[in-house]
Amino acid sequence: MRLLSWNIHKGIGGRDRRYSLTRIIDTIESENPDLICLQEVDRLVRRSHFDDQPRLLARYFRCHSVFQSNVQVGEGAYGNLVLSRWPVVSRHRISLRKGSRKPRGAQLLVVDSPEGSLHLVHAHLGLAEHERQWQVGRIVGHALFRSADSLPTLMVGDFNDWRDTLWRERLAPHGFAQLTHPVSRFRTFPAWLAMGSLDKAFARGPIEVRQARVVKTSLAKVASDHLPVVFDFHLL
Q1: Rounded to whole angstroms, how far apart are CA atoms 11 and 26?
Q2: How far apart are CA 57 and CA 141, in angstroms?
Q3: How many CB atoms lie within 10 A of CB 232?
Q4: What are phi and psi of 57, to 5 degrees?
Q5: pTM to 2 decimals?
Q6: Which of 86, 203, 208, 225 is the S-S candidate for 14 at Cβ 3.0 to 4.6 Å?
Q7: What tens-digit pLDDT sequence spans the chain (236 residues)?
Q8: All residues at 6 or more sequence positions from 65 whose CB lies less than 8 Å from its CB, including other chains
Q9: How many CB atoms sit inside 10 A of residue 64's CB?
């Protein structure tokens, strides 16, 4: 099974500032993932030609779609999107907004994969370290998260964790292994000259990860300001 996680920056290229959902689609399609976790997905926003990106992406990939609107932009919004080849049997969304800071959110899904039920946690965290520490603590302490403790769990997304502290301080104590390690192999931002390992993944339970890598194609480097990360895994 293959999962792709990517901050698509609303489909706006990091260097040329050109909007093109086609570049996003072509990059994703070249990897042929079964699960697609996207951050900064626009819905009915002027900068992205008022496209309903969740609907367009779900229709193109013919996937089950779960969208979480986090930030209001005019009459539209942007947020997190999960596309799945397989049925989503449980879906929850929780707010990760701390005080007056920009709204953030996490999606907690149970996916009925061919190898069994998978607990998928998809998040986009804040820019301040104290904010991110609080947000991860809120996720792992939430009753909806704990209700799936018996299932193999993947946690993915844009963690904005420049210093790579979240795993050691917040997730390792809860039994998570970091898949995007060492950080020198998982630099994803900025896409055209990646220095920061911001896009991360963590696993807990009976999961075997066969391969984890950053997509570094020429198309990926212009489609967004982040690079995608891909994981090939099995449930044991």
Answers
A1: 12
A2: 32
A3: 15
A4: -70, -40
A5: 0.97
A6: 225
A7: 999 999 999 999 999 999 999 999 999 999 999 999 999 999 999 999 999 999 999 999 999 999 999 999 999 999 999 999 999 999 999 999 998 899 999 999 999 999 999 999 999 999 999 999 999 999 999 999 999 999 999 999 999 999 999 999 999 999 999 999 999 999 999 999 999 999 999 999 999 999 999 999 999 999 999 999 999 999 99
A8: 54, 55, 57, 58, 81, 82, 83
A9: 18
Question: Are the C-beta atoms of 82 and 90 separated by less than 8 Å?
Answer: no
Query: Which runs of E-coded beta strand occur in the chain?
Result: 2-7, 35-43, 64-73, 76-84, 88-95, 105-113, 116-124, 153-158, 177-178, 199-204, 207-214, 229-235
SS3 188: coil
What distance in Å separates the CA atoms of residue 125 and residue 198, rounded to the nearest whole number?
10
Q: Which amino acid is at 177?
A: A
> How many whole angstroms separate alpha carbon 169 and alpha carbon 86?
33
The C-alpha atoms of residue 130 and residue 173 are separated, in whole angstroms, by 18
Domains of the chain (ranges; CATH) run 2-235 (3.60.10.10)
Q: Please state the length of the chain.
A: 236
Tokens for 6, please give them.
């990517």
* Burial grade of 141 (CB within 10 A; 0-12, 13-18, 19 or more): exposed
Could you write out the DSSP letters of every residue in 100-168?
Answer: TSPP-EEEEEEEEETTEEEEEEEEE--SSHHHHHHHHHHHHHSHHHHTTTTS-EEEEEE---TT--HII
The torsion region of residue 75 among left (phi > 0), alpha (psi -120 to 50) and beta comes to alpha
